[in-house]
């Protein structure tokens, strides 16, 4: 399956040769218990994509804070079991939905947590940990602290098989963009053609609902397939036919289909895809209360801005945890009270034109390469103001670079779309502008006929989605694979 590589890929950089083989066996085990059916496979594929990004971030040098990640997996249920925490009863299709949230910054703890949540064996992973922690014992008993590495002449003379030979061969035969497109391009074209009628239906439903409810937009938080999106729009359309009045409260809003219902920190109406119609109806009926909370939130942001010299408090969806409006207001309120207690004198307009985002972690304040300040809600106000004044000039320079980079990114996206006659070129939220610029520059140097008329997504790994979208890693390799 296409997502096996996504599950294994991020681990390859931190595991040794034999541990890599263990990881591969683990992925194969997942392949035996996870379902191939369309809806369940789509949910699993989306969850594994997000898991891939989470594991990759765990391995970034100096990476401090991770965005809590909610995942759902459908697991084939071979025998009847009682549901436990985080698990649901077996569905009529024979699969059990398992939901959990990743928040650990330790790779091994994360892997064990996932396996335990899915009721999968953990002994082989724990044995890896035992081997790591047993090395001092080996030293005490005079045993070597690493396996003996025999010269290749030993294997040539004895006829024994070199256990590292296969691993070295795999590392030499690295996937390249041209080889992967050659192997997967035709299959993607077929999937794309099959999805075209549903894509037209999706556009029709989206336009009709947007006009009926006078919406600003309709979006999806996750990469659900076209069939799944159509189903969600049909469900919303039926609700509008049955009880239109509450839905009219959403006039001018953006509706986002996501994992839970409510209002997002950005003011978008979130419709939980696992909720039933009466949950959605109650949400639409309560929108006036949310609008009132929005006004209070804006006033709170203005008060914080005034106390901190005119800096703008912003919420950047791609860089912050997915918060509801209530959660974000609580975070703002905590920070505002912290500032009030300090009685630090305001600095009129000294930080005007700059931006800051609030976080709930306990790390020190920092300046992001994009130009905004990352500020923990419990920061010491006095040292915080001193830090921001000291870094203000650098922040302005970073913001100017960000704006220039964004212009370059948009120009390269348009140029790539034209050159390869792409139907659509987009990126996953975890891909930065710098990564997208690097990817597009290198794409423009290539001749890639398989991309004609395709939907291309720049991601962290190779994958053909069920509707024919091609996913490629931003740092793809060029050239032919070595034989």
Automatic annotation (TrEMBL):
Please give the coiled-coil regions recorded for this protein.
none
Please state every residue range assigned to the domain named DUF4461: 175-477
Looking at the record, the residues that make up the DUF4460 domain are 40-120
List, alphabetically, the InterPro entries matched.
DUF4460, DUF4461, TCAIM
Report the Pfam families cross-referenced here.
Answer: DUF4460 (PF14687), DUF4461 (PF14688)
Q: What's the domain of life for this entry? A: Eukaryota
| UniProt protein name | T cell activation inhibitor, mitochondrial
Name the source organism. Answer: Rattus norvegicus
- Protein encoded by which gene: Tcaim
């Amino acid at each position: 399956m296409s997502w096996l590589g996504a599950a294994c890929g991020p681990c390859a950089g931190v595991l040794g040769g034999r541990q890599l083989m263990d990881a591969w066996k683990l992925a194969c085990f997942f392949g035996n218990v996870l379902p191939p059916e369309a809806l369940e496979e789509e949910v699993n594929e989306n969850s594994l994509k997000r898991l891939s990004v989470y594991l990759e971030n765990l391995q970034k040098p100096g990476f401090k804070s991770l965005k809590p990640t909610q995942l759902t997996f459908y697991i084939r249920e071979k025998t009847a079991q009682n549901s436990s925490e985080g698990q649901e009863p077996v569905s009529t299709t024979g699969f059990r939905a398992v939901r959990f949230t990743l928040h650990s910054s330790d790779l091994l703890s994360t892997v064990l947590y996932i396996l335990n949540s899915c009721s999968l064996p953990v002994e082989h992973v724990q044995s890896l940990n035992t081997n790591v922690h047993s090395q001092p014992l080996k030293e005490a008993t005079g045993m070597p602290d690493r396996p003996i590495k025999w010269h290749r002449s030993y294997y040539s003379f004895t006829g024994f098989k070199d256990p590292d030979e296969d691993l070295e061969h795999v590392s030499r035969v690295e996937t390249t963009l041209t080889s992967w497109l050659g192997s997967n391009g035709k299959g993607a074209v077929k999937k794309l053609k099959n999805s075209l009628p549903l894509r037209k239906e999706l556009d029709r439903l989206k336009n009709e609902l947007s006009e009926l409810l006078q919406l600003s937009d309709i979006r999806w938080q996750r990469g659900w397939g076209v069939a799944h999106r159509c189903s969600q729009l049909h469900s919303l359309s039926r609700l509008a036919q049955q009880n239109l009045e509450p839905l009219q409260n959403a006039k001018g809003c953006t509706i986002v289909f996501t994992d839970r219902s409510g209002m997002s920190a950005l003011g978008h109406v979130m419709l939980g895809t696992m909720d039933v119609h009466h949950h959605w109806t109650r949400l639409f009926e309560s929108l006036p209360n949310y609008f009132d909370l929005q006004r209070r939130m804006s006033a709170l942001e203005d008060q914080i801005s005034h106390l901190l010299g005119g800096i703008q408090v912003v919420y950047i969806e791609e860089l912050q945890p997915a918060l509801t409006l209530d959660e974000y207001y609580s975070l703002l309120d905590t920070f505002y009270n912290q500032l009030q207690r300090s009685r630090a004198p305001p600095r009129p307009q000294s930080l005007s034109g700059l931006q800051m985002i609030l976080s709930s972690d306990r790390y020190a304040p920092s300046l992001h390469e994009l130009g905004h300040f990352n500020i923990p809600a419990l920061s010491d106000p006095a040292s915080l103001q001193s830090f921001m004044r000291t870094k203000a000039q650098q922040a302005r320079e970073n913001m100017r670079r960000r704006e220039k980079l964004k212009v370059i990114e948009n120009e390269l996206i348009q140029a790539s779309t034209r050159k390869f006659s792409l139907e659509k070129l987009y990126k996953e939220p975890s891909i930065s502008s710098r990564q997208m610029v690097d990817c597009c520059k290198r794409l423009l140097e290539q001749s890639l006929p398989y991309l004609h008329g395709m939907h291309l997504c720049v991601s962290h790994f190779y994958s053909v989605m069920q509707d024919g979208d091609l996913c490629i890693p931003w740092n793809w390799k060029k050239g032919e694979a070595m034989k």
